[in-house]
Amino acid sequence: MLKAQQNGHVSVEVSEKQKYAHDIYARVMEIDNAFKALNLSLEYLEKDKFDNSEFELSDHYAFHAENFLLRLTSVVDRCHLFAGTSVLLDKSLMERIGGNRYVYDHMLKNFPQTAAVLQKLNKSVSKLRTRRNKVAHQEGVSSQNLVVIQAMENDEENFLSEVSQIMDPEKIRTLVREEISSDFKPVVVEMKNLVSELIDSLAPIYQELTKDT
């Protein structure tokens, strides 16, 4: 395809196996990009300052935590699309509302091992789903320590000096980072392991298709 484009051809004929390989690769890249987005959020959440920013530290923490939560289920959704594409399910049915259930029901009937992995992927995000849904409904991310940081930044009625007598303000900022990290990181690690398990469960299909190539 690349050679055809380099030679000025608008289209090129490909075999069904080549098209299938391209579609599978595209789905894998979609999953990979979803993980990159989650890890990028985690990278920012570990920072203790944002130089040359007009926004407060608490604003950055809230923004990246919300971004993480909103993107969390995208890994699960893309894994269902990957599984469905692997067994040639109808693309329009997979990508519509209720598409995950369509894929899962088919896998449960025909590929129970893959269905079990998809079920575990759904379960892996369940502990954060409530917080994710709150963000999706415009409630935002919050915690006791994050509220304290916001109050220190506003420093109403000398709040910062009062807090400093009890605990080092930097310690509170560290607690916020650790709190987010302890909640978010394990989920990403678990999902990565499950994606590997998902690919392994579908490997026999790929091996069968490549026997004659």
Descriptive report:
This protein has about 210 residues and is an all-alpha fold. About 80% of the residues lie in helices and about 0% in strands. The protein has helices spanning about 1-5, 15-45, 55-85, 90-95, 100-110, 110-125, 125-135, 145-155, 160-165, 170-210. The model has no long low-confidence stretch (mean pLDDT about 85).
Distance between the termini: 18 Å
Radius of gyration: 23 Å
Structural class: mainly alpha
- The average pLDDT value, as a whole number, equals 83
Biggest pleated-sheet summary:
none
Share in helix: over 70%
Q: What coarse outline follows from CA principal-axis ratios?
A: elongated
Low-confidence stretches: none
Number of DSSP helices? 10
Report the strand count: 0
The percent range for strand residues is under 5%
**Helices and strands, in N-to-C order?**
HHHHHHHHHH
Would you kindly provide a brief summary of this structure?
The chain is mainly α and 213 residues long.
Key terms:
78% helix; elongated; mainly alpha; 213 residues
Please describe the topology of this protein.
Layout: H1 2-6, H2 16-45, H3 57-86, H4 91-95, H5 99-110, H6 112-124, H7 126-136, H8 144-154, H9 159-166, H10 169-209
Helix pairs in contact: 2-3, 2-10, 3-5, 3-6, 3-7, 3-8, 3-10, 5-6, 6-10, 8-10
